[in-house]
Amino acid sequence: MDPLSVTASLVSIIQAAIVTTKALVAYAKDTKNASRDKKLLTEEASLLSKLLERLQQRALENQDESWLGQHADVVWQLDAAFRDLAKALKIDLKMGNIPEESRFQALVSSARWHFSKSEVYSLLQRIERLRQYASSLMSDAQLSILSRVDQQQKEALDRKRLDEILNWLSPLDMNCTHQSISDRVQPGSGKWFLNSEPYVNWSSSEGEIDPLWCWGIPGAGKTVLTSIVINHLRQSRGEDRRAEVGVAVIYLKYNEPEQVVSSLLGAVLRQLIQDSNMLDQAVQDLYEHHRQRNTPPPLESIVLLLQKTFETYKDAFLVIDGLDECEEETRWDLIDQVNKFPGVRVMVTSRYLSTIEEELENFVRFEIKANKMDMELFIDYQVQRNRNLRRMVQRAPRLRQDIKSAVVKTAENM
């Protein structure tokens, strides 16, 4: 049964039933010779009418299609009970109102009570059946709503708890940083790097892979390339391999006060949890243990959790951008800890520094230079978004190429 037809049928049945019960109440009130039977029938019909009105409001406000589909049988039983009552009162349901030839009109014209005791008893039975089915639907509807509310509250509490744990693991939100950088990247940029031999070997080769160090002068586009790499890795694995391939990034910034090793590695764990949308019990236990003491996560615990997490993947990638941007002590401590993750493919970007070269002696080295195609894409983007520059280029079309040539030449001489 189509849930939408169930919804429409339920509302239609209720509307007709309300009209009928209200008419029955009105008739009973208007007739003479008040009796116990008339009073009882009036009260029962009035109660049913009010119940039906609440059920109608509930059905209109909360059209839970799955719930209505599951209760189609009760809706049809309600319909059958109402039709039985209408038949007893000689009401033509196709008319949509109380026709003149119905028993109501004939009885009201004499303004007297004409129902026998047996007829009243029969009507009361029919009303009781209607009320039982309506009450059943009303109760189940309320339970369905309460269940949804409980589920929504549980999900909200789960999200709140997850946010609390993630923020406790690290105040550094690398996903947010990554998004802000990616938003500035022009489509098509970085293809030369993604197709380069060092990157292809690092990202795609089988077996044990040497880590990759990409160095270049300031302004060569290392951070932009990092964001391109992360997007490429995540897109390449697809949604179906999210649980098999872990991808995380660390963006280092100069003079960042919260840039300590525990927070940096905590940010890696934070990303992997967000990416998998699963919170391991060991992380929750560690959080509860330290929450009671109001203490941050120890570096040793973070490293152990990361080791266990990386072991769950068939392949894992960790990219560290701007290694030269942090304090030297933090830099070497970070590399020492990262070396504790065997099997993880590590890529680092930085300026060329002899101290970094010495520390990364086992890394494959790849020099990053400003790429002509990337620079031209960036210039086209700037021309497009800058109204004044766009007008100047429209008046002098050659100006665009002159700008590109000057920028590329300057970059080559750096």
UniProtKB/TrEMBL annotation:
Residue stretches spanning the membrane: none
One matching Pfam family: NPHP3_N
Segments forming domain Nephrocystin 3-like N-terminal: 188-351
Keyword field contains Signal: no
Coiled-coil residue windows: none
Alphabetic keyword roster: Repeat
Protein name per its UniProtKB record: Nephrocystin 3-like N-terminal domain-containing protein
